[in-house]
Design goal:
The complex is a heterodimer of chains A (414) and B (733). Chain A is built from 12 helices and 11 strands. Chain A is α/β, with parallel strands linked by helices and 414 residues long. In chain A, the strands form 3 sheets. Chain A has a 7-stranded mixed beta sheet, with helices on both faces. In chain A, helix 2 crosses helix 10 and helix 6 packs antiparallel against helix 7. The two termini of chain A are 43 Å apart. Chain B has 5 domains: 124 residues, Cytochrome Bc1 Complex, Chain D, domain 2 (Orthogonal Bundle), CATH 1.10.760; 42 residues, no CATH class; 111 residues, no CATH class; 117 residues, no CATH class; 180 residues, no CATH class. Helices cover 48% and strands 3% of the residues of chain B. In chain B, strand 6 and strand 7 form a beta hairpin. The longest helix of chain B has 23 residues. Classes of the chains: A alpha/beta (414), B mainly alpha (733).
């Protein structure tokens, strides 16, 4: 069901868009930043996106990319940001060109981040700075959206879950047909009677919270009270959902953008998981990287449409990388070297921190200058998250509790 | 942040019953495995202060310190566990199950460097630890055996009846526990577990673990499981040639029958009261009239697609039958490649059936770009810790191809480990199917018992069992230790009962943990005394058997209260939601459920959308409950027999309060006296609604087109039921 059908259904049923309990207070979340973490799960091939190497043959190993070095593109004439061409034989939906040429000035590419762990723990590490921490999205909501019962929209979490330790409540959005039922909770009672019942429910929850002896139950009752106090959700959200919801990650981007525009949420995860390309690497990577990039294009397009682009922070990541050389099945196997792309108007954009060499080996770099230096440091997700936490002004107690052990490398240029 | 405090674990019945995924990150100068000298060392063993019962650990000399395992302990383990196992990071496993401990240490310890401790070494360390414990030389205090005060027994009965059997207790059962107490309660639990709903419940819980439901066409799958089976069994032609002209729904059901083979096996083992290890070792597949046709086609005109039938064991298949592990669904779920070499399959087995997350064994994913690199995995020390554990199990699948098709004659990689498990290779892999050999040993491994307990705990308690490592936060370590205080004895009980799943479940749901009403602070202090207030609150808020319903449980409770006049009957879009497993319409996912594809972990905390679902449900279902009752003749009504539609509410206050009290029991599982405040509040709400309805004076209400002279009273009762269904107590254990 698309949004038009949805509204038709409501109209036919004589329903209006009201939200139970939640409609009591007008709402617009107004955080300094809105964060989207884009997860290309399975281990993307960054050499086919933002760290291209070309097809120079290396003895006994083959080549890294199926395209020539002179086919590698630049985001702009004055930009250090390079990107891979769309491979011959694959439909070019134009998203790479749009992505890099339209947004390079708010884009920081970090090539050569050494990840840790396997797929599940690696994704948590990439999204949190440690496999033992909540993701940066969960920490952002815990810091700035504690009053939001749908503050964090997730389309699939990191390996340990977005928030393995309960820092923030997570919301999932299915297809919007399921939401049509929730636009109106009271199907049978008169509005004044509805008010009486809701008032009685609230009073019961308050009473129960005071009486309950088990802390686990008190916590759950508190979540119910918090959710019932929370600002409007469904009705606000629906009015921002595009007329046709795209499939895949682009559709996820549309729904999260609607959640941001409606003021319902301040963080979200996009996730697709087709990147573990042990066989037929190019066949998996090429179209799916385009889908990821198209989703990010959609995030920025809708952010500009609704005027919150100055607040938007996008973190694109994967739990590892591939190859870099092809295996016997035209696939590339997992490696722990990868890239991240960070996009925001609040960082120094149009930059590449290049910590891989031509053979796609990790390079140690100096802090601040980011030039290769054998005595420098290998970049890890922890370095990135140390600075992201500062950018997002994560609550000091959370920063201390989930303490990152990494030096300030001056990556974000803020 | 390192966990840098000691924590204490329960000592019960004279021996330790502890489990822990413990990291020892010392060990760079370890002696050769199993060759440590028998040097005595003095210990400053001292008693820890606590309010619990303390053991005498002030002995000047411990005989156990003369044992060879002591030196290995000091060099390889004490870095994390402390020289007296007091827990520099956290304390180590000590169990009465010596063989289980040896197996665990051999395959897992030291974390990330398990090649430093072979079977002899593990035996030495284990014997030292057990002897050390028996001499009371280590630094554990004895602690209370219970951490919680229990709820009233009838409330526990309500919870258990719903959780295990999906129904309300009968009045006879309530009377029985009121007069017979705990013994009667335990006896009734036995009865619940003999009902089919219980076997379905365990199947549902394992559905979360195995997640094969994704392979049904309703989840967008094309039927690869069916095609694999056809090819193996030599069934010719397309499926519809053999099945005849069938519509799409038949196709769906046939494939679903194949996809659910592993889950139906689990149900069968539970239902028949078999040794639970049979879920891994069964030499049959479960078939109904649909998938049986695939294995043994019969004449199409006899095809009983209208009569799906009960699942039954079936033996006559080309594919070897090896419990869950040998099913097409399980193997297909974890596809392989020439480079992966079945390691996804091995990883899943350790995770699901051996309570071991291999990634916590240390090491990193490295490049394996070609066969040469893949070979290096077994010699590179940074790889060996994981791969020496994982690869022998991966090789057990050597006769299955990438998608899971049985290919006994295919060539396997010469450079891979031989099929094996826990340090032992299969002696003669030509004479026995390797997967069967390994499956039988997995089933006998004590970690299988732990994994079973873990799975059931998560399903029945609705709480995640933590896994910790040396970097875990102190509050997580404390929470883990509390969970293990309960889980470890249950694992032992399970083994001692010869893997009787009903004995295990009975112990769980009759425990103080499941039935928690409040925390016994003095007992809990032993675990959390070193934490700050915020950390203590974190731990306290996550213990005791309290959890939000899953979508499936919510659907069951609605069915229970409406005599299966379910929510979905009135609202088409809820149909999928109400299928216990099929949540594809998205509402189940919105309510924190899983779809076996993008969302594979359940949400356990209420968010705004979940509350919105509960709200909508509370109004819709209230109408159904009241209508369902009133459609019956009064003598057959469950709650409304005394409900007089001809009288105004003020004239039947006693009867109405009685009805409200009985509804509170049914919906909340709470017993309230008719004169209690809670009942009075609900009754006053009914009066207020009634007065408002009189004032508005609608002729017809949308709820089943309620009209007539009693319409205002009926809708007042509907309003009270909405109030009850919107309460926390309705959808939380």
């Amino acid at each position: 069901m698309d949004r038009r059908e949805f509204f038709q259904l409501l109209s036919a049923a004589g329903l209006s868009l009201t939200c139970p309990l939640a409609s009591r207070s007008a709402f617009a979340a107004d955080p300094e930043h809105l964060l989207v973490t884009v997860m290309a799960s399975g281990g993307w091939d960054a050499t086919m996106l933002c760290d291209p190497k070309g097809n120079t043959l290396q003895e006994g190993k083959g080549y890294i990319n199926p395209f020539a070095a002179n086919e590698i593109k630049s985001a702009a004439n004055d930009s250090p940001i390079k990107y891979a061409p769309i491979l011959e034989g694959y439909e070019d939906i134009g998203s790479f060109d749009t992505f890099f040429s339209s947004y390079y000035q708010k884009m920081l590419v970090i090539n050569g981040i050494t990840m840790s762990g396997s797929h599940a723990s690696g994704l948590q590490d990439a999204a949190a700075g440690s496999a033992a921490f909540p993701t940066i999205g969960a920490m952002h909501v815990a810091s700035h959206g504690n009053n939001l019962s749908n503050g964090f929209i997730s389309f699939g979490g990191a390996g340990g879950g977005d928030d393995p330790f309960g820092a923030a409540a997570i919301t999932r959005i299915g297809d919007i047909s399921s939401m049509s039922l929730l636009a109106q909770s009271n199907s049978y009672q008169h509005e004044t009677v509805f008010g009486l019942i809701e008032q009685a429910k609230r009073a019961a929850a308050d009473r129960l919270s005071a009486q309950e002896q088990l802390p686990a139950r008190r916590r759950a009752i508190g979540q119910l009270i918090n959710a019932s106090n929370s600002p409007a959700s469904v009705s606000n959200l629906v009015s921002y959902i595009p007329g046709e919801i795209a499939s895949g990650m682009v559709g996820q981007a549309e729904l999260i953008s609607a959640a941001f525009a409606s003021g319902m949420s301040i963080a979200g995860n996009l996730k697709i998981s087709p990147f573990d390309s042990h066989t037929k690497n190019d066949q998996y990577q090429s179209p799916n990287l385009q889908e990821v990039v198209a989703a990010v294009n959609k995030l920025w397009e809708m952010a500009e449409q609704y005027g919150y682009d100055d607040k938007l922070v996008v973190l694109m990541l994967s739990e590892g990388g591939r190859g870099p050389f092809y295996n016997t099945e035209s696939g590339k196997d997992d490696i722990n070297l990868s890239s991240m792309i960070i996009m925001s108007n609040a960082i120094a954009g149009n930059r590449v921190i290049q910590a891989t060499d031509d053979s796609y080996e990790a390079l140690a770099i100096q802090a601040n200058t980011h030039s290769a230096d054998a005595n420098g440091e290998i970049i890890r997700p922890a370095h990135v998250h140390r600075e992201l936490r500062q950018l997002l002004n994560i609550n000091a107690s959370l920063v201390e509790k989930y303490s990152i052990s990494a030096n300030d490398m001056g990556l974000l240029g803020t | 942040m390192k966990a840098n405090f000691s924590f204490y674990l329960r000592v019960a019945a004279g021996y330790l019953l502890l489990t822990s995924l413990v990291a020892c990150d010392g060990g760079t100068d370890s002696p050769p495995a199993g060759s440590a000298s028998s040097t005595s060392s003095s210990s400053s063993s001292s008693s820890s202060s606590s309010s619990g019962q303390l053991v005498d650990n002030n002995k000047a000399i411990c005989e156990a310190e003369k044992m060879p395992g002591r030196q290995i302990w000091l060099k390889q383990c004490a870095g994390c566990h402390g020289d007296r196992n007091q827990g520099n990071a956290f304390s180590a496993v000590v169990s009465t199950d010596r063989e289980g401990m040896i197996s665990y240490v051999t395959t897992s310890m030291p974390l990330g460097k398990n090649e430093l401790c072979d079977n002899d070494c593990a035996t030495s360390v284990t014997d030292f630890l057990i002897a050390y414990r028996q001499e009371s030389c280590d630094d554990f205090p004895l602690v209370s055996s219970t951490l919680f005060n229990k709820r009233p027994i009838v409330e526990s009965l309500h919870s258990v009846a719903f959780n295990l059997a999906g129904r309300l207790p009968t009045q006879a059962e309530v009377d029985q526990v009121n007069s017979g107490g705990e013994q009667a309660f335990l006896s009734i639990i036995d009865n619940y577990m003999n009902e089919e709903a219980f076997a379905n419940r365990i199947m549902e819980i394992y559905g979360d673990e195995i997640q094969v439901e994704q392979f049904t066409p309703t989840h967008g799958h094309s039927g690869a499981l069916l095609n694999i089976t056809f090819e193996e069994e030599g069934v010719q032609g397309w499926w519809y040639d053999n099945y005849g002209e069938r519509d799409y729904l038949d196709h769906v059901n046939i494939i679903r029958a194949h996809a659910r083979e592993p889950l139906q096996l689990i149900k069968h083992v539970v239902k028949e009261g078999k040794d639970f290890r049979e879920i891994l070792t069964a030499d049959y597949v479960m078939v109904n009239n649909l998938n049986k046709f695939t294995y043994k086609p019969y004449q199409t005109e006899q095809f009983a697609y209208k009569d799906i039938g009960e699942y039954q064991p079936f033996y006559e298949t080309q594919r070897p039958r090896i419990g869950v592990l040998g099913t097409v669904g399980f193997i297909y779920k974890f596809k392989s490649t020439d480079v992966n070499r079945n390691r996804k399959r091995a990883y899943a087995i350790y995770d699901i059936f051996l309570d071991t997350d291999i990634k916590t064994l240390g090491g990193e994913v490295i490049a394996a770009a070609d066969a040469e690199a893949a070979t290096d995995i077994l010699t590179d020390p940074s790889c060996k810790s994981c791969h020496s554990v994982m690869d022998p199990v991966a090789s057990a699948f050597k006769h299955y191809n990438a998608t899971g098709m049985y290919r006994p004659n295919q060539k396997w990689h010469d450079d891979m480990s031989k099929p094996g498990f826990a340090g032992n290779s299969q002696p003669d892999e030509d004479n026995e199917e390797p997967l069967r050999w390994v499956a039988e040993r997995i089933a006998d491994d004590p970690r299988f018992a732990r994994a079973t307990v873990r799975t059931l705990f998560e399903g029945l308690m609705g709480q995640k069992v933590l896994r910790i490592n040396a970097d875990s936060l102190p509050e997580h370590v404390a929470l883990y230790s509390i969970q293990q205080q309960y889980l470890a004895p249950w694992a032992k009980l399970f083994i001692d009962s010869t893997y009787d799943i009903k004995a295990l479940v009975k112990a769980m749901v009759s425990s103080d943990y499941y039935r928690a009403a409040s925390i016994i602070d003095d007992s809990l202090d032993l675990y959390i005394s070193s934490l700050n207030d915020e950390q203590k609150d974190y731990v306290k808020q996550r213990i005791g058997g309290a959890s939000l319903f899953t979508p499936e449980m919510l659907a069951r409770k609605i069915n229970m209260l409406t005599d299966n006049q379910s929510w979905g009957n009135t609202i088409e879009l809820f149909d999928g939601f109400l299928d216990p497993i099929n949540v594809e319409n998205g509402l189940g996912v919105l309510y924190g459920g899983i779809d076996f594809k993008d969302n594979t972990e359940r949400l356990r905390d209420l968010n705004g959308f979940m509350l919105a679902i509960q709200e909508r449900m509370s109004y819709d279902v209230a109408c159904e409950i009241v209508a369902n009752e009133l459609f019956k003749v009064p003598s057959e009504r469950l709650y409304f027999e005394a409900f007089d539609l001809a009288l105004p509410p003020e004239s039947q206050s006693t009867q109405l309060k009685g009805i409200i009290a009985s509804l509170m029991w049914a919906t909340w599982g709470k017993v309230f006296d008719v004169n209690s405040d809670e009942v009075s509040i609900a009754y006053d709400l009914l009066l207020n609604i009634y007065q408002e309805n009189l004032r508005m004076n609608k002729n017809v209400y949308d709820c089943h087109y309620t009209s007539g002279s009693a319409r205002h009273l009926i809708m007042s009762m509907v309003g009270v039921v909405s109030y009850l269904l919107g309460d926390y107590r309705f959808n939380n254990l």
